[in-house]
UniProtKB/TrEMBL annotation:
Upper classification of the organism: Bacteria, Pseudomonadati, Verrucomicrobiota, Terrimicrobiia, Terrimicrobiales
Annotated protein name in UniProt: Cysteine desulfurase
One GO process term, biological-process aspect: cysteine metabolic process
Recorded family membership: Belongs to the class-V pyridoxal-phosphate-dependent aminotransferase family. Csd subfamily.
Biological function: Catalyzes the removal of elemental sulfur and selenium atoms from L-cysteine, L-cystine, L-selenocysteine, and L-selenocystine to produce L-alanine.
Organism field: Terrimicrobium sacchariphilum
Domain called Aminotransferase class V: residue spans: 26-392
Source superkingdom: Bacteria
Regions crossing the membrane: none
Length: 405
């Protein structure tokens, strides 16, 4: 037995073994979406080749297998987060999970004048649903400021939390790489009487996460950022909260009885899963959780930190670079600007060298505006990336910088 090497682990990802524009692909857009190991691809193929049927309704063999696969996936994800099965609602991803809370919980429990606290480093998906709720319900939005270094300014947290009904914050920032002190934030918000939602889109596949230890009420994640398929994610909700929450979407599967006059809803999680769910995707996500825990999230996080340090060291040496976010204590993603070139030129020229970066505002427009950055390029790493790839990125970006200077 013994640990598999990172080199061996990398071979689980068939997509990485290819040339792009005549160069060996370097995939550094993992914060946008991660690659998928064979075990995830095979779990989904196996389901379609052998078990495909609709869930929860048939009394036939295939339907029973599909149901077992789907509910087994729920149990696997519950274990991944230290939750109970009934506390896991499958959604299309982080965005839908946050919209679910804003709609179902927000419209039931928030009224005009109530305060929702966010941070200035939120992804658009943790801003816009609350703005929509503000328009519908007159709820007020408040933001924890971000310092020029790219961390949360918590010096006035007690005042900011005063009277807050809901606090929703990002665990790891997708544009700054900042790791927010989630446990402390949850503890202080709960002490102030707030309900707390954690956006774990960028952390769920990278570090150990236990919702009971964290103490949050809701947690949202996307499968596709943790080696799983697109089209699936989840919302964790504390059981007592979900039991008291009205439905989100109406339709089949979420009701116990329907008459023309009205309906009675099933308990959680079914109440929140109207219609035919993403069955193969849930099975794929469970395979992803299994795969990640097979390597070990503590080991992945340690390796992430190594790649982050190397990424920062290599990027710091490029003339005219500005690195966004904190210089220590950060996740394995680094956004930057080059004095000489626009982010889109950086990304296009990198692509010519087989290097996949992201360019733009990374769905955090208000944050970049505040930092005075119109657009940035971003390199985001995963455990299957290598130090050699990071060094190669350094060479490519030096070329880009010289070309445009
Ligand atoms: N929050 C964060 C921090 C993210 O990085 C992302 C994806 N970039 C999202 C939310 C939205 O995730 P999705 O598009 O999968 O719903």
């Amino acid at each position: 037995a013994g640990e598999r090497s990172w080199e061996e682990i990398r071979k689980d990802f068939p997509v990485l073994d290819q040339e792009v524009n005549g160069r060996k692909l370097i995939y550094f857009d993992n914060a946008a979406t991660s690659q998928k190991p064979l075990s995830v691809i095979e779990a989904m193929t196996h389901y379609y080749e052998h078990d495909n049927a609709n869930v929860h309704r048939g009394l036939h063999e295939l339907s029973n297998r599909a149901t077992a696969g789907y509910e087994g996936a729920r149990a696997r994800l519950a274990a991944y987060l230290g939750a109970q099965d009934e506390e896991i609602i499958f959604t299309r991803g982080t965005t839908e999970s946050i919209n679910l809370v804003a709609r179902a919980w927000g419209e039931e429990y928030l009224k005009a004048g109530d305060v929702v606290l966010l941070t200035e480093m939120e992804h658009h998906s943790n801003i816009v649903p609350w703005q929509l709720l503000a328009q519908r319900r007159g709820v007020k939005l408040r933001f924890i400021p971000v310092t020029p270094e790219g961390t949360l300014d918590l010096s006035n947290l007690d005042q900011l939390l005063d009277g807050v009904k809901l606090f929703s914050f990002v665990h790891i920032s997708n544009s700054l790489g900042t790791i927010n002190p989630a446990a402390e934030l949850v503890r202080r918000a709960k002490a102030a009487g707030a309900t707390v939602l954690v956006d774990a889109a960028q952390s769920a596949g990278h570090l150990p996460l236990d919702v009971k230890e964290l103490g949050c009420d809701f947690l949202a994640l996307s499968g596709h950022k943790m080696c799983g398929p697109t089209g699936i994610g989840l919302l964790y909700g504390r059981r007592e909260i979900l039991d008291a929450m009205p439905p989100f979407h109406g339709g089949g599967e979420m009701i116990s009885t329907v008459t023309f006059e009205g309906s009675q809803y099933k308990p959680s999680p079914y109440r929140f899963e109207a219609g035919t769910p993403a069955i193969a995707e849930a099975i794929g996500l469970a395979a992803a959780a299994e795969y990640i825990d097979g390597i070990g999230r503590a080991r992945i996080w340690e390796h992430d930190q190594l790649l982050a340090r190397e990424g920062l060291a290599v990027l710091s040496q490029i003339p005219g670079i500005r690195i966004l976010g904190p210089l220590d204590q950060r996740a394995g993603l680094v956004a930057f600007t080059l004095q000489s070139a626009h982010a889109h030129d950086v990304v296009s020229m990198a692509d010519q060298e087989g290097l996949a970066l992201r360019g733009g505002h990374h769905c955090t427009q208000p944050l970049l505006r505040k930092l005075g950055v119109p657009a940035s390029s971003r390199a985001s790493f995963a455990f299957y990336n290598t130090i050699e790839e990071i060094q190669r990125m350094g060479e490519i970006l030096k070329k880009v910088q010289t070309f445009f200077a």
